[in-house]
Each structure stands twice: as structure tokens, then as C-alpha cells.
Amino acid sequence: MKRWLPVLAGIVIAVTAAGCGNDKPARGQRGAPQAPNYEEIQKRAEAFIHTVGTPGGEIVLSTFSDPKSFNPITSTETSTSYFTTLMFDGLLSMNGVTLEVEPNLADRWEMSEDGLSCMFYMRPGVEWSDGTPLSAYDVEFTFNDLVYNMDIVPNSARDIFSPEGQRFTVVALDSAHVNVTLPFKFAPFLETMVMQEILPKHKYADAVKRKTFSTELSIKTRPEDIVVNGRFQLESYMSSQKVVFKRNPKYWKKDAEHNALPYLERLIYVITADQNAELLKFLQGEVDHISAKGEDFPELKRAEANSNFTVYRLGPNTGSSFMVFNQNLSADPKTGKTYVDSVRLGWFRNDNFRRAIAHLMDKENMVKIAMNGLGYPQVSPKTPGEGYFYNGDVATYPYDPAKAREILAAEGFRWDNGAMKDKDGNLVEFAFVTNSGNNLRVKIAEIIRKDLQDLGIKVHFQLLEFNALIQRMDNPPFEWDAILLGLTGGPEPHLGRNVWHSGGTLHMWYPRQPSPATEWEARIDEIFNLGVREIDRAKRKELYDEWQRIAAERQPFIYTVLAERIECIWDKFGNINPSMNGGVLHNLEYLYVKARESD
Q1: % helix / strand / coil in the chain, to the nearest 5?
Q2: pTM of the full structure
Q3: Contacts for 344-349 with beta carbons within 8 Å, 24 or more apart?
Q4: Which among 8, 365, 379, 398 counts the fewest CB atoms within 10 Å?
Q5: Which pLDDT tens digit goes with each residue over 451-469?
């Protein structure tokens, strides 16, 4: 498990107080799942020892979107990063059970006494998939020529590795040693180093010189031309059908008896239309693992009792789900105009307008109708499952249409035959978009749409394929009004800097601001700048608590609900170690296909 860098994603989950049916019932037994013991789940995961597996076989997984590319530098969405993390490793990794930072391409590191520099010692004998030795010069190239290259866009990693706009100084002393000098004491340094995949200098240096790297590693790139250092390498890609990976025979990691990992020969990702199609394929045995919706839990539990798969309810996780309005003041370079006209910008940039909309989030119904009761309201940018830095003591907005109407009336909005108009008589209407394929998100969007329309707002609801939606949201002229979307998350707040800093590429409501557009955005910028300098953990928490209070007060993201993590996998795989932090697939390189009982 390696990435916690926030990327655009499907709905993720929060702490659950409901049952956690991790123990599979005996065949034929039914009934409510046993209440969870989270301490016991964690103890089991931490005590787990991988057995020596059998090489060969495959696992079939599923995804709702085609990859946008195979480029880990330009990736800002899970439809790409989901695959690139299989193909490229970083200097360090994060343990999927404990969340501790561990050696990876670097087998050790030494911080200086003043905390301003770190020497990484490259793991000896590691090769790229084409047989070229991996070296410290690849690390130097990745940071200096890719991450910090202003010609490469988008590049969300640059936000993370540029605290207060200052870069790390990355120098390869020789092929085995790379030194990183920090501009100041940087509290989450090791956690950020986990995030960055290392790419091969010998393969992409020329593309950097030609200023064509942004188009490298595209979905049209021949698989044999993609040089990797990770567990798997691309074998084939068929648009709208499947992405196939094969094991990287040059991968450095070994098991306890020095056998090569990964054990699995292939990973096959089937591209499915939506979650219903995914569920059907899983129940028919065509897909080996799914992350299930709450509404499907009863059916899965009934089928589990007489089938060879297990349903895991794993409690806490990370991420967010929200509605966001386009507040972008950037003009289209072609027309000189903003996509959102001045009238709609006036609504969307009005804090009280957004607060009123927050009072229309019927979270109780979202959990009940869309999640079968297996979900929780979200109130803060972080979630309980993200641990220490979560702050739940923030402003909340209970579902209250009357309160929403009262707030809007105070801002001059009026109603004419049920239709809402602003103080200048403009009909309040806007487009509301979410991604197709995620049935849970679509159901939540429909609940929101109905409540907006009941208040007199004319909503033009639309579904777009995920990558098309991200393209529209990320790039000028930013052609969108309101979107329902989600972000992945993690325990370290700084790794959300590309979302929350006003100049960040994922500062969705108004990205890449030349300077903070509001005082509260300026204060959040300051908090994130101060937070990375503060070594005292308690003082860091005070800062990030304030950020969460500001976010709740200003509502740039209007949070909805979080689903409980439910993962299902067929029992034919060995070394399954369910983790509350990493799920079922965090140790993918150790999974293997067990021998059949008749063999």
C-alpha cells in the first residue's frame, strides 16, 4: 500500500458503529452479523504472517472507468492512479495495516540532526523492467525534471512537494545515494516521500527535453514501451473492456523463502458499466473482488452462506463526498469570459447561499435510502477513520428546508409561483453533474436534486463518464456549475494541500488562484504553510482543527455522507489479511491462488 495523495474518486467511507461481519458464518447459517471488535480486527491484521504462496494464476478485478493515461506525474484521478501504483514504486511505502512508513526502493534512510536533510540509500540490485539498473539518478530526475517541471501539467504532486512555494533540493551523490535537502523543518516529510513514484531517467529524459512528457504514457502507448519498477507491468488495454497487467519479473521484493513476488501472474481489470453490473459479475464468479454498496449487503450476506466468498465489513476508512459549486474567476483565454456568468457567480460565491444549500442535504435519507443504513453523515474535510487529525467539533447544518429558505430570503431571494429568484429577478437555475457508473452517488445526487427543486431551484441534472467529468472540471474554460464528487484521503493533512491551498490544482471551486481570492482561503493557505513547519504534533492538530472549522463555516465543499467499507472476495485466494486501514487488497503482491481441494 503506498498512496495517500488525495485524488478524485468514488464515495469512500467512515467509522461505523454497526456490525462488522468479518467472520464467515457456517454454510446454511443466517442472521445478523456479529458486532465488530475493531481492536481484535487490528490485532489479527498486525499479527498476520504471510504464508509462502504458489506462483501463477490471476485475479479479476473491476473498475467503472477507462484509465485516462498511465502517467503517474500528471494523474489527478483514481482512474489513472489506481493503475500507476501497480506499475511504479516510490522510495518509501506505507504499511497497509499499521500506516507506518517503511523502506521500499530505498532500503534505509538517515535524517540529519537538524532535520533539514535526509540521505536515502538505494536498495541494491533493483532493476527496471527492461533490465536497466535503478539508481539514485532516477530519483533526482523524477523530482527535478518531472515533479518540479513547470511545463508538465497537470502536476498535483508539485503542490505537495513545494511547501510555501519552496522546493526540496534533490541531489544524487552517486548511483546508490540521493540526498534531499529541505527548505525548513518539514513535519510530514517521510509521509510525502511515500507518495512519489520514481520514473526511469533513461526512458523519459529525451521527452522532457522535447517538452513532450505530458503526453507520454498515454493510453495509446504500446505496453512494451512502458518501463516500470513496480509489481506489475501493462500487458494490454482494450478501451471500455479491460486492462490487463502481468507480473514484473524484475520486481525486487521476495517472500520469506526468497521466492520472487508477486505470486499472481496476471491482474485483469474488467471495465463495467456500473455497480449493479459489477455485483452481478461478482455473484456469477466473473469478478473476484468488489467494494459493495450498503444496499447490496443483505443479498451478499445471504449468498455468502452458500457460496465460496467472504464479505468483510472493515469499519473506518478515509475520504470525502461532497457537492461543490464553481466559483472560478479565471477567464477563458479564447473568449475572455468566465464560464459561470456573473449572476451565477454571485450565488455560488455567496457563503450564505452555500450554507443554505448545506441545510438541504438530507443525510438521514441518503444513508437510509442509498446505503441501507450503512453510512454516516460527513461534517468535516477529514473523517473519523483518518484518525488523530480529525475534528468533529465544527459547524453543522442539519437538514432543514425552512432554515434554508430563511437564509436565502435574508439574502434577497424570493419565490414566484414556487420558482426561486434572486434579488434582481433572475431565475435560480444551474446544471448539476455527477459521474455515471457509481449508482450510489447517482442516488445521492437524485435526493439532492429533488430537495433543490422542492425549494424552487431549477436543476439541470446530468450524468457524465468519469474522465469526461474530470476533464471538464480540471481545465479551462471550467464548464460546470455544480458537481457531486468525492476525494480519497489519508491520515496526514498536508497531503491534501493540493486541494486546500488556493494555488492547488485540485482546489476545485477555483483552482490555481494567482493569490487567495478570499481572506478565509488566505488563512487556510497560512495554516497549511504553518502546519508543515510545526514539529509538535499537538500544535499541528490545533492548526488543522482550525482549518476544518473554517471549511465547515465557509462550505466550499458541501459534505454529504460516507458509506461503510464493505469488501467481498472469493475464497480461492491465500494470504488475505483484511485491514481496517488497507482493506483486502493492500498486500496484493502476496496474494496467490490456492490449490483446489481435489488437486
Answers
A1: 30, 20, 45
A2: 0.80
A3: 344/430, 344/481, 346/422, 347/422, 347/428, 347/430, 348/481, 348/482, 348/509
A4: 398
A5: 999 999 999 999 999 888 9
